[in-house]
Amino acid sequence: MGRLTRRSVLRNGVLGAGAAGIAAACTTSEAEYGGKLTFSHGVASGDPTQDKVVIWTRVTPAVPGIVPVGWVVTSDPAFKHVVQRGVFRTGPERDYTVKVDVERLRPGSSYYYYFHAGRVVSPAGAIRTLPVSGVEDYRMAVVSCSNWPFGFFNVYREIAKRNDVDAVIHLGDYIYEYGANGYGGEIGKTLGRVHDPEHECVSLDDYRRRYAQYRTDPDLQAAHAAAPWFCTWDDHESANNSFVSGAENHQPDTEGDWMARKAAAVQAYLEWMPMRDPEAGKMRDAVWRKFDIGDLATLFLLETRLTARGEDITIDEIGLAPDNQKQAVANGIKARINDPNRRMMGPEQEAWLEDGFKASVASGKKWQVLGNQTVMAKIFMPDLKKGLSPEQYAQVSPGSRRFYESAKYGLEWDLDAWSGFPRSRDRLYASAKAANAKLVVLSGDSHTAWANELFDDNKRRWGVEFACTSVTSNGAGDSIPFKELNWLMPETNGDVLYYNAFDKGYTRLTLAADRVEGEYIKVSTIRSKEYFASTDATFFARAAETGMGGLQRSMGGSPVTKG
């Protein structure tokens, strides 16, 4: 079967199956719940393997209680050829979410699914299992940072419209924890997109309500229905700049114990996202996992926030120090971030990744792909005072000036990214080197688009990085609205070939036997539902005998599409 589109599923799916077909699918156990209910949050699928896939939905009952929900998987979009069906009993203990790991499926095959409770039927969804071998290419839409109040989810709508996406990778910040007066709140009020609850998320009920709000968005529902998703979290699924024992945006005196808040955030995430829960006996937040995509690649999804990450370090103290002490303060920061005991990932995950690299290469996979939260390349901030006119520089806020001045003290750009964990980055590169991995890193978090090359301290290239911009969250260009930023960053950093600080969109990653390609697709606006989409740039790389070849820019482009 060919690739899937949500439109074909909805056109030929449950709505066309007829009431008789749905009635025949109902079971006696489902009649136990006699109240009214709705499927208000759509359907989703995720974590496909060669023979399994997770399917998800949520019911909203009028009366609290246990709700038996039927699920049906078919091999055809008319829902005539049932492959599997069953009943999942859900209730308030899991926020009425339904998550089924459907097994015994065929590799590289398309399936269609829906849920029903009594005579109420959910929307339909489309899924495709991973191939075992012989696949020519595999295409994924890579997204990150979808903040509800900052704008409409046009990026998700654009992904749902395409018929050439096998899967979606969400690299984190699927929700934001801030209250209505927090980050993006003022814009949200003008667009009618105010966070619910209006206060910051702290409790389990808070996080559940926030996911429920996001999943009412029709464009997000459409993207989930169109293809399976691979998901991992970053910080805003819990709190800004979170780490193993706290977060920048957590105040114990007023918000309670961090471990309780973290547990609530993890529980809500696992309830609402179409992914397998960690294996029995593992920590609930140990969500790292891997997937083999035919002969092409192994996809590794990392966890770099809640299980081992060291405490947040910022450059704020440099700004507070007298001028004659700033370099000394910066040197102290460098010593702290270079502490070999400071970690982005714990020893268990590092060993898992090292073994995974070796196994993937030994099995003949062409690429080793990391689904990773934050930018990995070694990057230094440009000197805005030299790159902008005096009139432009005068418009840059004092806080932004201090951030961009970090390079003159020898500090990399963002200590919340891998730049703040250089020894962890060194160990990751060493693992890639030991396995002769062809490392392709996918990154989010920064709200800007990057095409980077990854070099070790000996200037040996071990990988390439495709970092996506945001779905809606403000980027550097929103606070410093000067197009010079787009060329100042590559000019300052030889490792950076492309930088877009302004546009919102996603990256379409194509894995093929002879090359890996990242196409940077942008939408014209997120402040209106009327938009158009176009390709801003495309870069590709080929494998080298050792490590990766360099990134090259493709000169072709895709046609503009209208939303």
Question: Structural class of the secondary structure composition?
Answer: alpha+beta
How many strands appear in the DSSP assignment? 27
Under CATH, the topology of the domain at 1-129 is which? Immunoglobulin-like
Unreliable stretches, pLDDT < 50, 5 or more residues? 1-30
Q: In angstroms, what separates the terminal alpha carbons?
A: 27 Å
Beta-strand percentage range: 15-25%
Q: Shape from CA axes?
A: globular
Mean pLDDT over all positions: 92
Helical segment tally? 17
Second-tier CATH architecture of the domain at 1-129: Sandwich
The share of residues in helices is 25-40%
CATH superfamily of the domain at 1-129: Purple acid phosphatase-like, N-terminal
CATH class of the domain at 1-129: Mainly Beta
Radius of gyration: 23 Å
Please characterize this protein's 3D structure.
With 563 residues, this protein is α+β, with helices and mostly antiparallel strands. It contains 17 helices and 27 strands. The protein has a domain at 1-129: Immunoglobulin-like, CATH 2.60.40. Helix content is 26%, strand content 25%. The strands form 6 sheets. Strands 11, 12, 13, 23, 24, 25, 26 and 27 form an 8-stranded mixed sheet that branches. Strands 16-17-18-19-21-20-22 form a 7-stranded mixed sheet. Strands 5, 6, 8, 9 and 10 form a 5-stranded antiparallel sheet that branches. Helix 3 (154-161) links the parallel strand 11 and strand 12. Mean pLDDT is 92; it is low at 1-30.
